Amino acid sequence: MTAPEEPTTPDTPTPEASGAGPAPDGAAQPAATTDVPGTGSAPQPEPAADPAAPGEPVAAEAEAPAPEAAPEPDYKDQYLRAVAETDNVRKRARRDVEVAHGRGVAKLAKELLPALDNLERALAAAEAQEGDEHQLTSGIRLVQQELIAALGRVGIVQDAPKGAAFDPHRHEAIAQMPAEGVASGTITEVYSAGYLLGDDVLRAAKVVVAQ
Q1: Residues 6+ away with beta carbon under 8 Å from 37
Q2: pLDDT digits (tens, 9 = 90+) for 2-43
Q3: Are 126 and 192 in the same domain?
Q4: Are residues 147 and 200 in the same domain?
Q5: In contact, 21 and 15? CB cutoff 8 Å
Q6: CA dihedral defined by 18, 19, 25, 27, rounded to 10 degrees?
Q7: Mean pLDDT of all residues in the chain?
Q8: How far is Cα 207 from Cα 191, in angstroms, rounded to an integer?
Q9: CA angle at residue 109 from 117 to 193, to 5 degrees?
């Protein structure tokens, strides 16, 4: 029988064999550390860099496009608009003044017309009674003519349309009578004269119309 072989151990390199000499006297030997599973401290991850922290480099953000400059106002256009608006205001004011003036004249004339009518009737009565023209009759006629002329200076015109065709917009028929040799619809007599202010009828003439 053969004897059992003795176990062999691997050769452990000595410090001299590994090239490291013996530690000098008095030098501290590094402590041997042994990692024990479950007991050693795991490596901690490095904290992420805070981009907002002072002193830390911050990545340059994409620069926003610069805002476009506001267009320069068109001062010439603004000036022309202001001139046109001023002209419109001036025309409107002038028109309002003219309208107010016309209304005032019309109101005054309407108050005076009845007195003028009575003056004309008095003149007609005086002429019918006197064979020869009296000084009083001449004076009444002169006053009548002056009043009519004064109304004309402010744009009021007398409308006494004897012999003209009847116009319902300007005349008021108070009677219709047959008239020999006169066409139907012709004004044969004016009872009360009418008055016009431009195209406006202040008072319609009261007339007799032929049938």
Answers
A1: none
A2: 444 555 544 544 444 444 444 445 444 544 444 544 445 555
A3: no
A4: no
A5: yes
A6: -80
A7: 75
A8: 5
A9: 35
Cα(193)–Cα(158) distance, rounded to whole angstroms?
7
* pLDDT on residue 10: 47
Domain boundary among 135, 154, 173: 154
For 108-122, b where at least 16 C-beta lie within 10 A, e where not — what string? ebeeebeebeeebee
Least confident of 55-69, 70-84, 143-157, 178-192: 55-69
Number of domains in the chain: 2
User: What are the φ/ψ torsions at residue 158 (nearest 5 degrees)?
Assistant: -75, 140
Handedness of CA 16, 19, 21, 23 (dihedral sign): negative
Q: How many angstroms separate the CA atoms of 167 and 185, rounded?
A: 9
Domain, as residue range, for 167? 156-211
Q: Which H or E run includes 99?
A: helix 75-129
**Which sign does the torsion angle of CA 147, 152, 156, 162 carry?**
positive
39: tokens are 């007991």
Of the candidates 202, 198, 203, the residue with the CA atom closest to the CA atom of residue 106: 202
Nearest-Å Rg of the Cα atoms of the chain is 63
42 part of a folded domain: no
